Amino acid sequence: MTDTPLNPPDRHFDMAALAGDERYRLLASSIMPRPIAWVVTCDAMGRVNAAPYSFFNMFGADHPVVALGLLPRPDRPKDTAANIIATGEFVVNLVPYALAEAMNQTCIDAPPGTDELDLAGLATRPSLAIRPPRITASPVAFECVQRHRLETGPGQLLIVGEVLHAHFAGHLLTGDPTRPRIDADALDLVGRMHGPTAYTRTRDQFDLSRPIWQDSLPPEQGEPKEKLENDNG
Ligand SMILES: Cc1cc2nc3c(=O)[nH]c(=O)nc-3n(C[C@H](O)[C@H](O)[C@H](O)COP(=O)(O)O)c2cc1C
Q: Per the record, which residues fall in region Disordered (predicted)?
């Protein structure tokens, strides 16, 4: 096949040959959608700070581990980074569509000590085990403590946290109360997409059954099923 404007050639990019903002653009515009951690921290004086972070995910359940990627700012560290370094504590609140605007307001580059939740008119309630509060309107919040901190580049941090407590709004929980399920539609979370302004909703879902090796074997060769169903990643 010849390369024409209608059929442009595939390309590769050597990361080492690119400027930082180009690397950011290529990665952040393709590794998506990303969940958003709406992170509440306190500084050493107890002043509350909030900001959204989409370099975020869970990385295990035993221990229950989440991680945040905090990029440097040219003039000073992000308040979230400074506060986690100072206190080792943070709350991750999740962001439903109804709170997307409010979340966006809290990404403002306000000076240290500014309570972005106050600016956005958001109430908080105390956490159980740590000083930073959680956002009352957020339907899911995780109280976290820092377990590891890696500097993955100049001023660029990867914070690995352990979830101590998980809070869920009652209307999200369905089924057997001893082993509740989360109603994903009711949760209606948003995710971060490419560029500074694009988001997506999590309502466009489809299901795929997982292939199981055992099911392709004659019954006498199959192992007990419980053994094989633990791979939940
Ligand atoms: C949806 C969204 C996701 C963001 N994700 C990140 C991120 O993963 N890492 C980061 O360093 N900044 C991220 N930002 C930018 C920070 O929120 C922004 O720099 C903010 O001012 C930092 O506030 P702080 O100094 O109070 O921590 C994101 C912004 C938005 C709106």
A: 209-233
